[in-house]
Amino acid sequence: MFNIILTGLTSLFTDIGSEMIYPLIPLYLVSQLGATPAIVGVIEGFAESLASLLKVFSGYYSDKLGRRKNLAIAGYSLSAAAKIPIIFAASWAWVLFGRVADRFGKGVRTAPRDAIIADAAEEGQRGRAFGLHRALDTLGAVIGVALAYLFFTSYHGDYRTVFFWSLVPAILGVGILFGVREKEPRACPRKSCLSNGRPWTGG
Fold this sequence. Notes:
The protein is mainly α.
């Protein structure tokens, strides 16, 4: 349960930071950076497609390495860092870079994070574990949108200030993930282990 709560809190804070930015990005692109609606669509479509594709590969390498935590931390860290080019964007290309980097991070982190949750859940309790995680994730999205509105109106439409504050929950989310206690990779039975595609023979 400890790891489940920590990954849930990580998702909560990460989504707070994400939703403080994403609802404002289309307006930011069009009103501040001179992008057309077509460019907004290309940015979002390309970024989301990349995230979906990378989930397959990150899951494969997570299983191959037997380590989940480091990949998850790398993915969440990249998503947090991806906010920086958006904050200091001088053109829509900077936002494209930031969104692609963020979705790259999401693609990397999702599979190993879900594996951490599955490993931490007791037999017959995985539905509850993932349900708790999803609830915290959704709560983070709701809080993020509310904070985006609060900051945006308080700072009189200053996009960059809102984006800057979004770094705070994003960094907190990464920090929490360091507390996850990863299980040691399970040793496979001697007769079933493979080495270079051949049965393991010892030595």
